[in-house]
Amino acid sequence: MTVHAAGTQATGTQATGTQATGTQATDLWKAFQTLLSGRSFTDLTHAFHPGQPHFPAFPDEGRTALFDLEKGDGFTAHVYSIVGQWGTHVDPPSHFIRGGRSLDNIPVDEMVLPLVVLDISTRAAGDADATPTLDDVSEWEERNGRMPAGAFVALRTGWSNRWPDPEAMANPDADGVSHTPGWSREVLSFLVTERNITAIGHEQTDTDPGRATSHQDFSLETYILAQDCWQIELLANLDGLPESGAVLVASWPKPQGGSGFPARVFAIH
Length: 269
Description:
The protein is an alpha/beta fold and 269 residues long.
């Protein structure tokens, strides 16, 4: 305490600066509270658990109680064994791209973004292989104006309503080919090159439609991550969001060199 006090007295400018910073922080919080007054918060995250839908090549989650209150221990602590791409999760560029950014290299200012919801759920209800078109983007902009630069674009397909049924999520036909919606190359390319987006998200397990992933075709996921964008897979509750004007907040742990991890994602609207 003595050292800190002396240091503050010896550098009056720093003390003034610290005080100003504190005032600015207080003012920011007051402004933030005002901004959030009357807003809604929607959790876009599935709670993960053993037995949930997942990429078929991945093992199931393992979870054991190392200590357990119910067994007389002083606290409860679990050991989790999961693949990074588990449940609602983030994929950084390094997931598919050698030398791409890993989770610890994505700055926190990319975790709060303007949210664009591109809704093809009506079409997907009648065609499980539906993908977005440039017309969908044009119509969105006719209604809402130009998509904001740096946005997080979420593809609403209605597919999260099938969670947590693995069979319904994969939706295979008699030949074992999965039929699920996905992105299209023309739309992803437009969003990256013409609208300078930061990230994408979707309700289904993969970026690519099920017919592609059934044949080990992950070209769309490879493309978007190669553009230094990141993505969130297995989003929930997109049906409760406005298609424009909301803010997306996404966060995840910070494993050094991490190639994916469960994420907590929500929208403010």
